[in-house]
């Protein structure tokens, strides 16, 4: 509980910690919006009518003629999102490192650490995605082999739900371990593979704190989602407040992760000695 309270206190004193997440949302959301807007303008170009056959022909034409372009745009947005996310995570961890070291952080710290570590962070991110997909492979195989049976049954079997739940939890753990390894990489200035190994060992050693935080996080996210749904009734203002609430939670999660690392890093070093 101490780690959670301390994380909240540090974020409250350094609200600049939520700015990187805001930038990520604005940039990626802005690019996606422009892409969607461009596609909409293309579809509803001059000469369009309300005739249903025209609309159908238009859709078929766009899919057949411009499908490669749509794929390129989609891949571009995906790659851009991953690059920005890696930069944001690297810069955010760097800001958290400075908060713990000198009590405060600023956006110049975000830029310095983001620029220095984002390529390594991106590689770790991709490894996390690959590891998650590999862990989920049994579920995908089961789904392909039994898709006709599942569709005919009309409901989900206990076996399907069990395999999905187990593989999903394992994939989430693999992804979290990969993301957590960015902290020893940046804060601990460890090498690439050492950071991944350290991540696994520290999380295993502090599993009680990790499980406790997970329970609290799930409860907090549930409340935040309900709160966000209520706020979405209020145009613009509600969405802004909901987004800031989510960014605040991400800041607390980041600070908790860094203090969790500091707490169990020392135990790991003693163990290694």
From TrEMBL:
Domain of life (superkingdom): Bacteria
Keyword Ligase in record: no
Bilayer-spanning residue ranges: 21-44, 72-96, 117-144, 156-178, 210-234, 240-261
The keyword Membrane appears for this protein: yes
Residues making up the signal peptide according to the UniProt record: none
UniProt entry keywords in alphabetical sequence: Membrane, Transmembrane, Transmembrane helix
Protein name stated in the entry: Beta-carotene 15,15'-monooxygenase
